[in-house]
Request: fold
Amino acid sequence: MKFITALKTALGVAPGCEKVNEFLAEFVEGALDEKMHAQFEEHMNMCKCCDHYLDQYRQTIDMTKEVDEVAIPTELAEHTLAFLRKSNAFSQDQGSATS
Amino acid sequence: MQPTDSKNPGPLGTPPDSGDMVTTTAEGAKGSISLDALMAGDEKAFEQLVVQESPRLFRVIVRIVGDDDEAASILQETFLQAYQRINTFRRESKLTTWLYAIGINLARASLRKSRRLSSLEDQEVERMQPDFNRGMFVETPAVWDPSRVTELSDRRQLVRRGIEQLPEDYRTVVVLRDIEEYSTDEVAKMLGISSGAVRVRLHRARGALRKLLDPHMRRMPKA
Reply:
């Protein structure tokens, strides 16, 4: 970490690694206020540890998004509608919305 | 500093229910159903809700309980309870958010009943977060090399196993926020917790997944 950033962190006028990490979810979501977001970006640009961690964090999110698709059982909705009719929630002679 | 509200759009960019219409979220079948008709117990309107929301709600439930048959059963019970309790919906959220909250609660109850346990405990998730000393990283995180796991099927398997190991509270926020891409505020409403609590749980879950993926993703040292 560059000296000036380390000094700011030590003086408590800029966030350190732990503070940045604590609010990483807000940071990647763009949910921090403008001033805090700028401070975090400045920290990331100066700190190799946080830069590497952020890269891992983003790759983790990206890999999570591409996880296996769930196979949807055939006639899932039809079976649910049949269950509702059987449970007397629906009238018995109701036609299916899918028909 | 308090976390601010999410700026992310709703699922698939759908707006909250407006006026007396329910915007459903099913992919390829996005449409509107009259909320007044649903609240009045109109079977046709409810059938439309079942048809349009079943696939996505099933995906969420099966990822929580990990069993197709159990998820299908919970899905049926979810719609039954929703139909019977539709007059308790207070229009303070999207109807689909209210519906998913019922399904998630039933899925959690099923997990507790079956005593299916995750392989990780809450305390282990805490221990999988990075260590700091005087506010600074103790160790520099390794550089990840995506080319180490180039096959999509291998990456998916790694992540799926990781998600399955997470305790249910953590798994559910990952499923809803990172996989199904609901906004943080919607996830908060579904789970009955604050948006800040969702982000804290999500952050720890991502940190734990990162730790599980780390050995597979580290750049290999040059020979």
